[in-house]
Amino acid sequence: MLHHLQMERDSCDFGLEELVDDPPHSSEFPLPTPASSIISEHEFSCHCCYDILVNPTTLNCGHNFCRHCLALWWESSHKNECPECREKWEGFPKVNILLRDAVDKLFSEVVYRRRAEIQANPKISRSLLAFQRYGDTIGRSRTNQHKGAGFFFSGVLTALTCVAVMLLVYHWSSGEVEQQDLLISKHVSRWTTEEVISWLEHLGPWAQLYREALQQENVNGRLLQMLSDEELSKPPYNIENQAHRRAVLAELDRVKALGVKPPQNLWEYKAVNAGKSLFLLYALKSSPRLTLFYLYLFDYSETFLPFLHTCCPAITHTDQTVEGSFVLDTQLEPSWRQWAEFLVKYFLLPYQLIAEFAWDWLAVHYWTSRFIIVNAMLLSVLEGCALWRLWTRDRIRTLPSRMWSHLWKIVSQGFAFALLWPFVPQFVCNCLFYWALYFNPIINIDLVVQQLMHPETQAL
């Protein structure tokens, strides 16, 4: 019995030794292999484009997508939900850094190729910028960035808005513009003595010297048209200064030619040319170069020449006073120096021309001129930021196509305005005029702050 048990133990030991010495064949019991050898591209593919993940972004539901695929989906659907399971995400999705590094190491060549293709696609770049700007907006709202600099700028915007509202109420309630309408709409032959004196005072402070003489002689509109250089130089008028007489006679010739007093400030120009002033106000803001070119072609003598002489004044001779050259020089042909200065500013700094024109009328339109100057500076900054983004992102070659599309847009809007203008109520036109004049600078302040604080998130 014992001998039999010993033989069975020996046979078991012999079987174990065979198993140790001769392991099973690999086809029957395969050995485990390294994990990297069984990883496939399918496990790291995006469920939108079905390609290797680039900047993988993980949503709350756990699904991963290429960041540009998610941006395109968000831009087209305008929904904060997963493209696969439609579960809404909260906050702003972030790039999964761990997954991104793993994909970059495993499929470096494919990721490099795909990133180059993404950067070369302008549509994808715009979508990514818009998506990032949306995320920045959410981030700013959640981190209380209204404090500090944001609180300061909001206070400035509030103060400027109050000033704009007060100016708007003042111009609507005051009768200054209505009083000036009498001279710019009433024929000169029907002017009274008070209206003739009012016309003279508009020529400048120097004209106050001759106010009393005209009042004593009861010079009305009919008599004003009969005055000549010889009569003005003799008693009772006694305008001995030759430059003053030339200024009075030159302005009198314009009154005779037009039959009414020509507009000499912004409000008078608006009263005479309501539609044109509104068109110029919006056109100068959107496209100053095309607007000035339009004035050169279609309104050369009445608007373009005075604008050019104001922004690029001619060199005044020592024997010629400012009063004498005020009216005369605005109708003369510009010199080559004036044209050279104007063209340089026209191509490089068109908004500076508008600011210089408003600066010249600072004494007449105190707050309005300041609003125009500030708005011109802000628009110059916005234009410079746009050109800088084109240059830094290697898209300067797209500038001709952008200019052509901008030209087509402005021309089409101009034709639409010309067709719809007769049917627009005057009250609506006044609202649009004052909005562009006083509220657009306030809006542009916020745009400039966004450009300077977050330049990388601004879409072209």
Automatic annotation (TrEMBL):
SUPFAM superfamilies, A to Z: RING/U-box, SAM/Pointed domain
Q: Name one GO biological process term.
A: apoptotic process
Output this protein's name.
Answer: Bifunctional apoptosis regulator
* Subunit: Interacts with CASP8, BCL2 and BCL2L1 through SAM domain and also with HIP1, IFT57, ESRRBL1 and BCAP31. Interacts with NGFR; this interaction inhibits NF-kappa-B and JNK-related signaling pathways.
Q: Which species does the entry assign this protein to?
A: Myripristis murdjan
> What is its subcellular localisation?
Endoplasmic reticulum membrane
Entry keyword annotation includes Secreted = no
- Catalysed reactions listed for this entry: S-ubiquitinyl-[E2 ubiquitin-conjugating enzyme]-L-cysteine + [acceptor protein]-L-lysine = [E2 ubiquitin-conjugating enzyme]-L-cysteine + N(6)-ubiquitinyl-[acceptor protein]-L-lysine
Q: Which gene encodes it?
A: BFAR
- What are the residue boundaries of the SAM domain, all occurrences included? 191-258
Q: A Pfam family this protein belongs to? A: zf-C3HC4_4
> Which parts of the chain span the membrane according to its record?
150-172, 371-391
> Which residues fall in a coiled-coil region?
none
